[in-house]
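Support request, please re-run this one:
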Amino acid sequence: MYIERTFILDAPIQRAWAFLHEPHEVGGCLPGCHSVEVVEPDKRYTASVGVKFGPVKLGFDVQVETDEERPPEYAAYTMRGADKDGGSKVSAKCTLTLRALESRRTEVTYTSSAQIVGKLGKFAGGVMQKFADNINDQFIAALTKRVAELESSAPVVIEEKEQANLFGRLKAVLGKWWGHFRWQA
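Re-run finished. Output below.
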């Protein structure tokens, strides 16, 4: 099964990258994620995830390992997991690509090529794809909402070019005001 999603985060690329590399924040946005544990910072994580697919309820223990990173633009991961009863297994190769759109917005493209075997793997491909698409839509909605919350409380940082432009405009306005004031005196 292949999943690809592109979405926008209302955050500068550096902060979007930092958020997407915070396992507890990302885990908190994933539907059914009960816990996240950092095994090796910036490298390996584990998570406990509950999945309900029709009449089937499964609890998965998932391991995520970082294969490659090129901050703040690209990361590749391998995910492996098995349900607690041992009846289903999942493995996936995932990528995350970030692209700055403007100084305060980032386009994120996420891909996942997953293999599912066991109880969950017996469901027809189209039905499973629809289920995965629904989970991904919920995940993206939660991510964008959480980033917007964090950004609304983050201090605004003005980049050097913007500072120079603002300073130049302020200087021009003050210069006119000062000239007007001196002429009046």
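The helical segments are 13-20, 23-29, 125-153, 160-184. DSSP finds four helices and seven strands in the chain.
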